[in-house]
Amino acid sequence: MTTIVMTGGTSGLGLVAAGRLASTPGVRLLLGGRRPGPDGVDVLPLDLARLDDVRRFAAAVGSRVGDDGIEALVLNAGLALRSADTRTADGFETTFAVNHLAHYLLVRLLTPRLAPHAVVVLTTSGTHDPAEKAPIRPPRHAEARLLADPALDPDRDPAPRRAGQHAYTASKLCAVLTARGLAARGVTAYAYDPGPTPGTGLSRDYSPAMRLAWSVLGGPTGRLLPRLSRPADAGATLADLALGRAAPPADGSYARLRRGALTWADPSDLARDDAVRDRLWADSAGLLGLTT
Ligand SMILES: NC(=O)c1ccc[n+]([C@@H]2O[C@H](COP(=O)([O-])OP(=O)(O)OC[C@H]3O[C@@H](n4cnc5c(N)ncnc54)[C@H](OP(=O)(O)O)[C@@H]3O)[C@@H](O)[C@H]2O)c1
């Protein structure tokens, strides 16, 4: 039996991926979440905005994983907020806390449980890369302490909406850097950009106009725009990555879905910077009271 552990399988492209994983013969899916997932899949309670919940989830997973270990860890959950003003119960900016810090903690807690040839997949976004010229604020840095408390950032965006965008794109930069941090420690890890995928729940905190546009683009209109991914394709590709069905080049750690096809590419300049990678790893550990 192949054990796959996943976050973010209760909505959007992750719901598609979780459904495919759960229906793959020989796979046991351990899904963490706040509400029901695909039919027939038990969801272990997990609110990534609460680090105690993350620790409880990791313990629950540990008690269910046998000697074979975890074959794939799929860290797909994510949110995008209208500002960077909210804080979790632990005191961290919410987007950074949910999208990066909670997943980093899960990685640290579950790495000892990984099977020898396990794969870790973190869902990132092309918006982490300024070269993609996405219509939202690109990340200026991946400084964990500034992302955890953007009020300390001397160059923070005064406009809340822009600050919220920065929190999101920076958290997605952190996902690429975490994948590279794992790779540097001998773990097979990929950051996966599903491409712009309207119609998912990611717009839930946006303005009503933006939510409407997101939902329209997620319907037949969006299919006329080949740059957009469909949740069905984006989710199926995520499942393929977890199942080892999307063979990367030897040094591949960043995969992008574009026009329905998966390509391996270089992530942004910041994402390729080893000093930035190592500082994020160490500072994230510091915020959590872990050793590097
Ligand atoms: N859609 C895009 O255009 C796009 C592009 C690039 C990257 N991405 C990334 O793709 C991933 C999936 O996003 P999506 O577009 O499919 O959005 P979505 O439909 O909103 O799915 C997000 C998933 O994350 C979970 N989640 C959010 N906050 C959580 C928390 N505090 N605790 C536990 N789970 C939490 C959600 O759980 P609930 O069901 O409980 O809310 C849901 O399962 C995200 O990482 C996103 O950044 C999306």
Record keyword descriptors for this entry.
binds NADP nicotinamide-adenine-dinucleotide phosphate, Rossmann fold, 37% helix, alpha/beta, single chain, 292 residues
What does this structure look like?
The chain has 292 residues and is an alpha/beta fold. The chain has a single domain (2-288), classed as NAD(P)-binding Rossmann-like Domain (Rossmann fold, 3-Layer(aba) Sandwich), CATH 3.40.50. The protein has eight helices and eight strands, in the order βαββαβαβααβααββα. The chain has helices spanning 12-22, 51-64, 94-110, 144-148, 160-184, 208-217, 231-242, 274-288; strands at residues 2-7, 27-33, 43-45, 70-75, 114-123, 188-193, 254-258, 261-264. An eight-stranded mixed beta sheet has the order 3-2-1-4-5-6-7-8, with helices on both faces. Strand 4 (70-75), helix 3 (94-110) and strand 5 (114-123) form a beta-alpha-beta unit. Helix 1 (12-22) packs across helix 7 (231-242), helix 2 runs parallel beside helix 3 (94-110) and helix 5 crosses helix 8 (274-288). The longest helix is centred in the middle third of the chain and has 25 residues, at 160-184. It is globular. The two termini are 32 Å apart. The mean pLDDT is 96. Bound molecules: NADP nicotinamide-adenine-dinucleotide phosphate (NAP). Residues 7-8, 10-14, 33-35, 46-49, 76-79, 98, 123, 125, 193-194, 196-197, 200-202 line the site of NADP nicotinamide-adenine-dinucleotide phosphate. NADP nicotinamide-adenine-dinucleotide phosphate binds at residues 7-8, 10-14, 33-35, 46-49, 76-79, 98, 123, 125, 193-194, 196-197, 200-202.
